[in-house]
TrEMBL record:
It holds the Pfam family ABC_tran. Residues 2-233 form the ABC transporter domain. SUPFAM superfamilies: P-loop containing nucleoside triphosphate hydrolases. One of its GO terms (molecular function) is ATP binding. It comes from the Bacteria. This is ABC transporter ATP-binding protein. The keyword Membrane applies. InterPro entries: AAA+_ATPase, ABC_transporter-like_ATP-bd, ABC_transporter-like_CS, BCAA_Transport_ATP-bd_LivF, P-loop_NTPase. SMART domains: AAA (SM00382). Belongs to the ABC transporter superfamily. Keywords: Amino-acid transport, ATP-binding, Cell membrane, Membrane, Nucleotide-binding, Transport. Gene3D superfamilies: P-loop containing nucleotide triphosphate hydrolases.
Length: 233
């Protein structure tokens, strides 16, 4: 469904995404793991068409989207929950969700909102509350809900568990698993490796902009380097 073939790029002369080939098949949840500055966010930017310099081929479905401008890539069904969430703090939960459907230019059905509230019942309780007054975990739910309002076929999530308490990490990851069960393919960037491995089927570990290790969940969990570096065992 999403295929990157020898994708490289970066900022100015600096290369931070270095010859990366990865794929996410229809219906899969795949992890991008790696330490700070490994290039995870830059890889997401490359997929979205937002990395200032980028070469290689990016395919989505049967289309080569490498030269499709960023604002048109959402039309292909790619949505992103960015690093740091970026909810509109002065706006209500409901208005934040409605903004996610804005580019569709079709009427938002009650169904979209209901689906979102079924996924995150506490957003239903807080729909009139200003998003900026929610807890970090609840803001993450708004960010995910907002991305889903675009009715994507693939969701990219950049460190959705960052800064959250363990219980909230579990709740957010359970919601991501449910999103996947609803038929949406997921690419999940995570530093919380042990928790991420519970909900993905495969993963890639990035180091200095390159894929250092890749494999199924079981292969990653039994890889000595992954265990030492990311799982502390
Ligand atoms: N706008 C930018 N201009 C120049 N260099 C950048 C820019 N954004 C990121 N970088 C550099 O690119 C490298 C990779 O950064 P990136 O944000 O992709 O890493 P990351 O794996 O997402 O890290 P983190 O886990 O901290 O989010 C870093 O060395 C960073 O300093
Ligand atoms: Mg990042």
């Amino acid at each position: 469904m999403l295929k990157l073939h020898e994708v490289s790029g970066g900022y100015g002369r600096r290369t931070v995404v270095d010859d990366i080939s990865i794929r996410v098949d229809q219906g899969e949840t795949v992890a991008i793991l790696g330490a700070n500055t490994a290039g995870k966010t830059s890889l997401i930017r490359a997929i979205l068409g937002l990395l200032p310099r980028c070469s290689g081929r990016i395919e989505f479905g049967c289309e080569d989207i490498s030269s499709v401008p960023a604002h048109r890539r959402v039309d292909f069904g790619i949505a992103c929950v960015p690093e740091g969430r970026h909810v509109f703090s002065e706006m209500s939960v409901m208005d934040n969700l409605l903004i996610g459907a804005y580019h569709r230019r079709k009427d938002v059905t009650r169904q979209d909102i209901d689906d979102c509230f079924r996924l995150f019942p506490r957003l239903a309780e807080r729909q009139a509350q200003k998003a900026g007054t929610l807890s970090g975990g609840e803001q993450q739910m708004v960010a995910i809900g907002r991305a889903l309002m675009a009715r994507p076929s693939m969701l990219l999530l950049d460190e959705p568990s960052h800064g959250l308490a363990p219980l909230m990490v579990a709740e957010v990851h359970a919601a991501i698993a449910e999103v996947n069960r609803r038929g949406i393919s997921v690419l999940l960037v995570e530093q919380n490796v042990s928790s991420a491995l519970k909900i993905v089927s495969r993963g890639y570990v990035l180091e200095s902009g390159k894929v250092a290790v890749s494999g199924t969940t079981a292969e990653l969990a039994s890889n000595d380097d992954v265990r030492r570096t990311y799982l502390g065992i």
